[in-house]
Amino acid sequence: MVEKTLPSSERQQTTHKVKKLQKMHKTWLVDGSHTPTSTIISTLAYGKKIARETGSRARIHWSEDHQTLYYCGQPILMEKFRRFMQDLTDEAENVLWNELMFAPIDGRFTMDLRSIKDNMMFT
Asked: What pLDDT, in 10s, does the model give residues 61-89?
């Protein structure tokens, strides 16, 4: 609307053009002016007010024994979720060993991370 009212090729800081823009704003963009934009603004404000006042139903809740998580009414068993995360970690580890380290299963090593001591002298 601004470009239609004040084309960028004709913009100068003059009082006349500012008044023209203010007139367009008052006619088309002000709430309560009975225009499509005013209706949209009013409807959005109404929806926002209703959403604040009524709240919404929780999408996530736990079962009484805390072993099942419900998301949008669908149950997610914690045992299956833990297994999924472990499988995902194992798969990522295999990809890293095979694709990055080029090490077959018998060429892999383990390291006890608790045995690593950090020496601040060399950092």
From this structure: 999 999 999 998 899 999 999 999 999 99
45 contacts 35 by C-beta, under 8 angstroms: no
Burial of 35 (0-12, 13-18, 19+ CB in 10 A): middle
Task: Report pLDDT digits (tens) over 33-57.
Answer: 677 777 888 889 899 888 888 877 7
- What ranges make up the beta strands (E) of the chain? 60-62, 68-71, 74-77
Place of tokens 């919404």: 56
Q: In what order do the strands lie in the sheet with 60-62?
A: 60-62, 68-71, 74-77
Domain boundaries, given as residue ranges, for the chain: 2-54, 60-122
